[in-house]
Amino acid sequence: MINWNEIEDYAKHWIREAGERIRDSFQAKLVIETKSNPDDLVTNMDKETEQFFIEKIHSTFPAHKILGEEGFGDKLQSLKGITWIIDPIDGTMNFVHQQRNFAISVAVYEDGVGQIGLIYDVVHDELYHARKGQGAYLNSTKIEPLGEVPLERAIVAINATWVTENKRIDPKILIPIVNAVRGTRSYGSAALELAYLVTGRIDVYITMRLSPWDFAAGVVLLQEVGGVITTLDGEPLNFLKENSIFVARPNLHEEIFTKFLKRK
Q1: Per-residue confidence at 166, pLDDT binned at 50, 70, 90?
Q2: Topology, domain 151-261
Q3: I want to staple 85 with a disulfide (CB 3.0 to 4.6 A). Which of 10, 63, 198, 216 is the partner?
């Protein structure tokens, strides 16, 4: 029998401990490297934080697998069994330049189904957390289910990259959405943007490229408040590769998909 209470308790303790370690690093000199391009940053704290989680998980739950952004976890072909999906610092550019607007994202999945989702805003000490079937919380306050918001009053989180010339989508597809809503925002951290949607701070989030560690925890939280998350084509997410992401309040997901995204 899997003791999910124990796993959740450990996960919460570790994510807060990791956050404290990151806060303590603010006065230290960062070692900054680039990955796929000059804008894709990784720091020594990204690597050290992922290794911190791996050490804790392997020593406490040796049978559990780990999928992590920085590549120190397991090489997975499936999500069979129990898998931790971790982004040690989501929003590394914000972490480097602002020392805010970043988060730690930790999810625990069983046979591909999200059981625990944690997103920790380190600077504001805000822990968004959910257990499957038990609701979503911000620290100790339960988050209410998402209600309806009219399209013309909606706030959409979208990076300006996707409404200018780019290699992934014709901006003419997304510009009408931007024109139809009340306003747009871009926070530079997918985990926080998903958390903000869960709490109703934004109403829609669209992006063309996220990896599983970016969205795995957010999916668990979203399901507990009734949010809808798919690819831009309306398909289920693949938790072993990159996806486009379209997440929204239920009424807005249906309306935007039908009016703007559905292929004619």
Answers
A1: confident
A2: D-Maltodextrin-Binding Protein; domain 2 (3.40.190)
A3: 216
